[in-house]
Design brief:
With 367 residues, the protein is an alpha/beta fold. It has three domains: 1-50 and 94-113, no CATH class; 126-186, no CATH class; 190-363, Rossmann fold. The chain has helices at residues 2-22, 24-28, 101-112, 146-160, 206-224, 246-251, 260-274, 295-309, 330-338, 355-363; strands at residues 41-47, 94-100, 125-136, 179-189, 191-199, 229-237, 241-244, 280-288, 315-321, 344-349. Helix 3 packs across helix 5, helix 5 (206-224) crosses helix 10 and helix 7 (260-274) packs parallel to helix 8.
Length: 367
């Protein structure tokens, strides 16, 4: 009976996951699940799922309860009509479902047909790991293998004729003890860092920041699934740039002008100080509405990218979030200078519906 319940439960979980996969494009464009994430899980509201429940058959069906009754007899209100009339629409039911971030990343990979990331500098970092390789007759008590020890004691007693099936007492002696054997192995370890940069000048409103927040969640989910360890850093800028925490990154709004080069300089300083390119896989994402202070600053940005930033990163992605106040010029400048460069990817994000396409543009090269 328990096995059957577990089997049914697993089947229902597969149905739920299938429903999430079916509607994943809708979830990608919505920011509601971003606030429902934990360390390893994310909670997703799934609509239109019929929960398993009992139904009564029609055979020999009688009335509810006992006693006389006929169709139309009022129950529980003494025949008095209520003051409110029932609505004609069906209520919407939703089920809060928890899925792991790894499962969500796998769904995202299927939805967007994402290739697995090939890390650069593979094996440049390594970690020591203990691996159990077999069983031996000597070792510390902390590594004693209880099942193997019991098995050896049972074999010894049967061979010696001391085993009594009616009184099956198994007492291991020293020669029965078995211990796990292990050895240290060196395991390649690829670390990654994501550096987010965002324009927080007056032209970037709450709607634009919500788009950035939603897209960043899915970027995090995918890249985390590809690496054992990951670090995330946040840089905001208007006319000047500074590193901040996650909360400040998504909720700061300034009123000054925009110097994009200030963010690129801060990003470069961070890489040079803390993330040697030979040891780290570096991903930089910059979001802006495309306004920059001057053509001169745009030239500084281009030079910084060409000579310093792009040679050090796996990928540099620029997402231009459409704003009615922004000119949108910067993406044109990047395309003019880096159209053939595989490390720099640009994407126009006109609205929330464009997040799905933008993610595929950013993550679809397997870098």
């Amino acid at each position: 009976m328990i096995t059957g319940i577990k089997r049914d439960h697993q089947r229902f979980k597969q149905i739920v996951k299938g429903k999430i996969k079916q509607n994943l494009k809708k979830y990608i464009t919505q920011g509601e699940i971003v606030g429902r994430q934990g360390k390893d899980y994310v909670s997703i509201p799934v609509h239109q799922i019929d929960l398993p429940h009992f139904r009564f058959g029609k055979k020999q069906a009688g009335g509810v309860g006992s006693g006389d009754g006929s169709a139309g007899t009022p129950l529980g209100n003494d025949g008095q009509e209520g003051s409110q009339k029932a609505g004609s629409g069906e209520g919407e039911h939703s089920l809060e479902v928890e899925v792991t971030l790894q499962e969500l990343a796998d769904m995202l990979a299927q939805e967007l047909e994402l290739p697995r990331i090939t890390p650069k500098g593979q094996g440049s970092l390594s970690s020591q790991k203990n691996k159990y390789t077999g069983i031996r007759q000597i070792g510390p008590n902390s590594l004693r293998h209880l099942k193997r020890t019991y098995r050896e004691a049972l074999k010894r007693q049967i061979i010696a004729g001391h085993y009594d099936p009616k009184n099956p007492v198994i007492i291991p002696i020293k020669r029965d003890f078995r211990f796990r054997s292990w050895k240290n192995i060196t395991q390649p370890q690829n670390n990654a860092v994501i550096i987010y940069m965002m324009d927080v000048s007056g032209s970037m409103g709450d709607e634009q920041k919500e788009i950035v927040r939603t897209e960043s969640f899915w970027i995090d989910t995918w890249i985390r699934s590809q690496y054992k360890d990951i670090s995330i850093r946040y840089i905001i800028h208007d006319a000047t740039a500074r590193e901040v925490d996650q909360g400040t990154f998504y909720h700061t709004r300034e009123s000054g002008g925009t110097l994009i080069s200030s963010a690129y300089k801060t990003c470069l300083e961070l890489i040079q100080k803390e993330y040697p390119p030979d040891d780290w896989n570096i991903y930089a994402f910059h979001f802006s509405d495309g306004d920059n202070w001057s053509a001169e600053d745009t030239k500084i940005c281009v030079d910084l990218l060409k000579t310093d930033v792009l040679p050090k990163v796996n990928l540099f992605c620029y997402g231009q979030v459409e704003s009615r106040y922004g000119s949108g010029q910067f993406i044109k400048d990047l395309l003019e200078h880096f159209k053939e460069d595989e490390k720099l990817i640009t994407s126009k994000i006109e609205n929330k519906e464009a997040i799905h396409r933008s993610l595929k543009e950013f993550l679809g090269r397997g870098k």
